[in-house]
Design goal:
By secondary structure, this protein is α+β, with helices and mostly antiparallel strands. The protein has helices at 19-26, 51-63, and strands spanning 11-14, 35-39, 43-48, 69-70.
């Protein structure tokens, strides 16, 4: 029986002014097909479908000094 790997936790990015621009930027780092997002009141919640893409995106956020929260 294949072991299911847990989905990566969501990433919350506060104070996003242009969601489409942000997603376009992230799709240069990881495949756009692996990004799903939801706009919340004052932040955007990202769900990344693979652990590998999740790590790449977090590394990119860190190097870009973009503020984010995850669990």
């Amino acid at each position: 029986e294949p072991q299911s790997t847990p989905k990566p936790p969501p990433i919350f990015i506060p104070d996003v002014t242009d969601v489409n621009k942000m997603i376009t930027h992230f799709s240069k780092v990881i495949p756009k097909s692996e990004i799903s997002y939801k706009s919340l009141r004052n932040q955007v919640m990202l769900r990344i479908s693979s652990a590998d893409s999740y790590r790449k995106l977090v590394k990119s956020l860190d190097s870009s000094k973009i503020s984010y929260n995850t669990f």
